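Appendix C reproduces, verbatim, an entry submitted by the partner laboratory led by Prof. M.T., so that reviewers can inspect both the input and the predicted structure.
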Amino acid sequence: MRLQPRLRSLLFVPGDRPERMVKALGLGADALILDLEDSVAPAGKEAAREHVSAFLAEPRTMPLFVRINPLDSGLADDDLAAVLSGAPDGIMLPKAEGAASLAALDAKLSGDIAILPIATETPAAVFALGSYGGVSPRLIGLTWGAEDLPAAIGAATSREADGSYTAPYQLARSLTLFGAHAAGVPAIETVYPDFRDLDGLAAYAARGRRDGFTGMMAIHPSQVAVINAAFTPSLEERAHAQKIVDLFAANPGAGALQMDGKMVDAPHLKAAKAVLALAAD
């Protein structure tokens, strides 16, 4: 595939707001998601397609994804017909339900267009999170959402009073994380809805990176810098990782070694190399 960028931050931009698309180019996000789905009212879909198509035709300075409407919505084919001539870098697929959805969208695409599914928005989707691997080289990651799923099953909310996820949505998040890694692609954390709470966002993004997510979606420009910082290894992390790599390089063939009073072994070396790879990106 042509596109294998590092996706720390993916900023949503409504497809019916062309002025925001232009402004978003200079906000530091690793990619933009030009949205034709939830942020666009039914009456505005056609105009949004025209705006997104025109924006895609401009000289490109960063990866541009398009979130189309779900495959079974009756709108997806019109979305694709409008935007594919502009060669978006990727298509975000909402309400994806595993391998079948990935294969269905893959069959509609040509060239080097990547696919990023939102993989937890229906009950059936949750049971298909382990099926994405080996289906299409277009798969560039998996992400999830905690808004559509509770609505689909009649739940009152996906969150506790303190903002943390209730057990069913903790499960959906975890299965997305493991499903992505099983498929060999990055896991992308879902949005943090309160764009005014940057401290809460920083803590949330830090937990995502701690758990194995490598990036996160943003709904507001103010969130981009916080997300980028959270998913970029600090100088201290880089130094620690380099120390582990150097230690094993100096002791070839060793299975476990002592460093700073603690034992380090193959999993630590693998994690250290991953940190240095992120830093290099």
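The chain is about 40% helix and 15% strand. Additional entries are available on request from the coordinating office.
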